[in-house]
Please model this.
Amino acid sequence: MHRFLFSCILLHLSTIDSSHFRGGTITSRPFNNTASGTSIDVIVRERWSWRRSAYSPNCSPATIAAQTPKIGDSNTLNCVSGTCGSYWTGMPVPTYCTDFSAPLDVASGEYYQTYTIPINITFSIAFSSSAWFAALVVGGGGSWAVVGRISTILRPDGYLNTSPVAVSLPILYKQINVQHVHVVQMSDFDGTDILQCRWSVGGTSTINQYNECAGVCNGVPGANLIGANCTIVFTLTNPNTYAAAALQIEDFYNAAALSANTPMTSVPLQFLFYGYPTPTGCSTPPA
Model:
């Protein structure tokens, strides 16, 4: 489990909002990166974070060991664009809890499922539901959408592609009225790929051809994103309020593909910043 240490108690942890979604990600990889036949097995991974107290019993070492109960929304990941077919039956969203933070009231879980998918196709899958909790700078009470792109098209080097992976804690506490620099860690099993990070976009203009962020598009007002290393430069101004960061991490085979903006896959990552007021009576900043 993650443990969060704070040197000052004045972070108002009691302001965690009552609605349950806390972001997540979708990734995919082939079971074997060499193709044979007309279809391949693809392992799809989802990871979601939720309000821990929304589920009983709460996620704990005991429930992690017992793999019960499942946590999460009752919806499924559905194919929303590209070559959708009967091979995609909808991936269930509920997962077994894998880690949690009691002080932040957050529980997270992962789920993997293998699908047999025709070769040389691409399609996007989405987890769309509602509603975000109210205490958001942008999108409070609105819907969410998390969208990922899967590809079984052979790469120019003859192998099947593995999507990038990006990681973040579900909630990151940041003092208001101070400029922060946050780097999202990106990696890719295909070591020569060029990774690029961008804001998720509403509408259908991207490779996913689907609204990627619903109510939290541009969810961190005034933030600047450096795409090459997925660095967010931002200042939070609203105390005791969350800002939702909705990102897409995409892999490009080479510089020419990057210049043409033709990624192979697109991986969503959504998480929260929480703005806390300047602590008083506290000589050491939180760590």
Summary: The chain has one domain: 21-276. The two ends are 17 Å apart (CA to CA). The CA atoms of residues 98 and 109 lie 5 Å apart. The chain has a mean pLDDT of 91.
